[in-house]
Amino acid sequence: MQDTPAKALQGTLPSHNGKTQQFAKRHPIGSAIGLYLFVHGFYLFSCWYNVTRFGSWVLLWWAFLPMVLAAFGAAVLGAAGLVGLCFRRVRRDCLILMLGGAVYLLLAIPTFRPTIRLGNLIRMDGFRSAASRAEPLIAALWHYHGDHQKMPEDLNQLVPSYLPEIPATGLGLYPEFKYSRLPTGAKDDYGNSWTLVIPCTSGGVNFDTFRYHPSGVYPKDGFGGSLERVGDWAYVHE
To answer: Using one digit for the tens of pLDDT, what is the confidence trace for 20-54?
Structure first.
């Protein structure tokens, strides 16, 4: 009766013959490293791709998931391997599973937060490019103010006298600059009579924004999150 669970477990593991056995014995570490590079590389690729003009909502919402699933899978394999050690016939295969899972976790756990930080740097570089694309728009707004002693009611008033067209952000997922202004003479708590904002959720339940304050004043926290300066703009991490 004791062989029954062993045989069931063995059916899910590499067999003890030929090339399958050799591959399993020789490459558990390489397989773990390959999986680690793939899932973390996929996350970083998604961070870059989603701030290009081609950005994908699918990648935005699912970029983080492979890292979590791979780490969870490695932990489950390790636990299954421990159980399998009780059965002599699959003991070697279980050790291979445990080795691969352990190598993956040893790589993934200490580099998880650095990978997230690197992904954020990549994302901020995309928004830095969007800020550069906004420079003609900001110049046109100030030009309009100089001519009329007030800010335009909306960006369409800049076309065609000040701009041939309203520039796009260059970010496929977040294509438009949102402009708002206060009544003439009024200013907000940071000295702004108008602002430019790019709504830019980063996936999940959040309402991140990328903001331009003409006053150059940004709080450390506000607008529903913490602010990270990106040149003359600030990114709000909700």
So the answer is: 445 545 678 888 999 999 999 999 999 999 999 99
Residue-wise pLDDT for 185-207, tens only, equals 899 999 999 999 999 999 877 89
8 Å CB contact between 53 and 86: no
DSSP state of 63: T
Dist CA 84 CA 66 (whole Å)? 26
Is the pTM above the cut of 0.85? no
The residue count of the chain comes to 238
Residue 41's domain comprises: 3-123
Lookup: tokens for 65: 């998931």
**Whether residue 169 is found in the same domain as residue 194:** yes
What six digits make up the tokens of 28?
A: 């558990």
| Beta carbons of 199 and 207 less than 8 angstroms apart | yes
Per the structure, how many domains does the chain have? 2
Q: Are residues 59 and 104 both part of a single domain?
A: yes
Q: CA-CA distance, 97 to 95, in Å (whole number)? A: 5
- C-alpha–C-alpha distance, residues 205 and 228, integer Å: 19
Q: Where do we find the tokens 């421990």?
A: 82
